[in-house]
Design a protein that fits this description.
5 strands, alpha/beta, 5 helices
């Protein structure tokens, strides 16, 4: 059975200003499929470098998922710039000041939970509200659910995104530790 040729998708990549998110965004931008991509992150300079790769297909929303209004603003920007969303690569995350429970305060953990969990729920919820319940590929990297900083491992890659899109999986969720 031959795989279908992937078509251009409208994709949101969060945490795109560094690390895996930057690599995933770069790979998607350079894909021959000519995806339209909204990249988000805290580092404006890095997001600008991504936009320079293809200014007609890459859109930028700089901000921090710790801001409770940012997920809704991101989805509204996606709607305005892309008109739809076919895939979410929810890669943002932080441990902030959280290393060990005994060495952190409650506010640090609340902030980490807001960025790592609540903002992802908000993004998916806002997408469902604004775009409806059509097919959507969702890749999620969950961070911060461990006792020590060194134990955290990111779990998605550009290959994961590409593989799942080629296979036609629309409800894929890749989890972290």
């Amino acid at each position: 059975m031959a795989l279908a040729t992937p078509s251009a998708q409208a994709i949101l990549v969060t945490g795109a200003s560094a690390g895996i998110g930057y690599a995933v965004a770069t790979t998607l931008i350079q894909s021959p499929c000519k995806h339209s991509i909204l990249v988000t992150g805290r580092r404006s300079e890095a997001l600008s470098r991504l936009k320079q790769l293809d200014p007609t297909r890459v859109f930028v929303a700089a901000g921090d998922m710790l801001d409770p209004t940012f997920p809704a603003a991101v989805v509204k920007t996606a709607y305005a710039k892309l008109g739809r969303l076919d895939a979410l690569v929810l890669n943002h995350g932080t441990l902030g000041q959280c290393e060990r429970i005994a060495d952190s305060d409650v506010k640090d953990w609340q902030d980490a939970f807001m960025v790592n969990v609540s903002s992802n729920v908000a993004l998916v919820s806002f997408c469902c509200t604004l775009f409806g319940s059509g097919p959507l590929c969702c890749c999620l990297a969950v961070r911060g659910l461990c006792a020590e900083v060194g134990e955290c491992v990111d779990s998605i890659s550009a290959e994961t995104v590409a593989r799942e899109q080629r296979a036609g999986y629309h409800d894929f969720v890749g989890g972290g530790t």
